[in-house]
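Sample pair:
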Amino acid sequence: MVNKTTATIGYPRIGLNREMKKALEAYWSGKSSLDELLKVSKQVEEESLKDQLNAGIQLIGVGDHTMYDHVLDWTFRLGLIPDRFKQVQNPKDKYFAMARGNKEGLQALDMSKFFDSNYHYLVPELNANSKPSPNFEEFLGEISRAQQQIGKERAVPIVFGPVTYARLARCEGVSVDEMISRLVPAYASLLNSLKSLQVPEVQMHEPGFVLGDAEILQKAAETAYQELAKVQVPINLVTYYDDLGKTYPWVVKLPVQTISLDFVRGDNLSLVKKHGFPADKKLGAGVLDGRSVWKDTGYAAQVIKELEAIVKTSIIVQPSCSLMHVPLDVNSEPSLDSNLKSRLSFARQKISELGLVASGKSDSTASGPGVASSQDLENTLDKSMFSRSEPFSKRRSQQFTVPGGFGTTTIGSFPQTPAVRKLRLQYKKGQVSEDEYQRQIDRHISFAIGVQEALGLDVFVHGESERSDMVEYFGQKLRGFTFTENGWVQSYGSRYVRPPIIYADVSRISPMTVREFVVAQSMTNKPVKGMLTGPVTILNWSFPRKDIPRKQQALQIALALRDEVADLEKSGCSIIQMDEPALREGLPLKKERWNEYLDWAVKAFRLSTVVAAPKTQIVTHLCYSDFQDILEAIDQMDADVLTIENSRSDDAMLRALAKYGYARDIGPGVYDVHSPAVPSTEFLVKKLEGFKKSGIPLERLWINPDCGLKTRQWEEVIPSLRNMVDVAVQLRKATKNGI
């Protein structure tokens, strides 16, 4: 009989009550010291290990706790710090400047989606002069603390692998292969240090091996792992988020002791059955879905049973990926329907289920959503429901524009002040009536409109003071969604979200945004945008059902949003923004699967929006992903205005759109909303002058921040927007005068 053990490969690192968020934001605002921040961080780290120890996990992944982002951690540990940050002397100030920029105007590292998840990582910047200068002292200290708490025999260090690190970096003037070779000595040094700590093995996380182009990494990967094997510390090569695909035959031959595969996403099971599995290696079987809240022990137990007939040595039963993608504890949700709750599994539940699965058993309640499948919606809809009544070339002249271009607007949200958050909490607890709540919300809307009038923006927003989250807000107003009170998941840094759970067919109950739009528009003669979150983003930022395809869920959401667009238009709204920041992250990791996803994703967006009349301007917003390789799909969305995150990426997306020949209006972000710095007029002039050189006709350019402003303070927002508007007006005048 095959020997089976249990393991974890990552765990939530935010704390049950968002302790890390509170500690970070208190430290950044100067309300607490670094020592206080470090104390909270260690407490969260210890609680995480305690959970896994109490669950009886035999091999516990350690060292994955982070102050902001684990990829940034490895950039810092490896000493691959861009030159502009070297002026910052204090190590923690330097770390956070790399993450968020600083008040002195240092630009943070670019931020991008981590594979196909809603987690954001800080992109390493590497060039011909980049050479590791590692300092692993802090990491080794974390490993030593874990060993003291849970025992040396259980504590398995999690290391972000050299191949994936280089693959995810922005490499300029140096190839990925060359960068991998430069990294190997640093990693070998780390392995030697870990060997001296007598660790049972090292988890080397290499999700980059599942990417569609991973074949090109073969030679560099083989050379790297041959060198690392010389240290003679057992390595568990951990992959996740998809199957290995074409890389399977050579990846499983790498000189490591264990290969960990994701048996939830992709089809690694077929690859194992087709090619077999090396008789001299252990298999880490990721069979519990680390990105879903539905119990799936029945599926997991079945996969383990099939693997036992193939694997000759040992099987390690583990989640499919780090559990950082799911909330911490379903028992912290007293308001959830008991029947539904019995079918849910968060991080603490999943680690307790590992032993059950390893023993060959499954939970009888693990039946997924338990709702009958829906019909194929697309086949029931008329084709005309997916196309605008007139092409953009005829629509644009009927829509609001600013003569000469450089029209100014924002992306949607304004600061979520303590007063706003307190009001929403009081309303949620029943401490204020609905009438009083709406009166208070209207006052916040009035303030936002007044600020925009004073600043002279061209297109206004109402500020979204009634919304805690751009997905949760809509889910709460749609049938088929349920919500948690404490189901927080890290998106990046101190930004946490509570993804809704889709458990049944989705439909709209009543208008969701019309009241706030009408209130805002009544306060100004300037156009106010109706603000909606798109169907693909709502789906990708929720925990979807597992009993029907994602396509069907997206189309259901799209139909609900279509009704909202129609109602906004009837209420006098002439500009409607339908944000789709998660379009790219839902893209399969292997290119051969792209077309199917993009086909239904674009159709869902169009189904939501094309009900609008030609005179109604449809805006969409994309951010924090690499969109250059799906420009055709973005074009097919047929939005009238495309706003994009742009400030950290050096206008790369803008240049790509110009090269592609994108023929609609574009609003490239001019400053980083995650930085505490107020952009100077000099900085903004330089940025906008760069736009003029992009090849995009000036009359089609809009000026806006990178993203929503909810995480900033009014003291930062007002001067930033004032400078943005002043520079836009100056350039508009200069362009008009032919300067």
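DSSP finds 25 helices and 23 strands in the chain.
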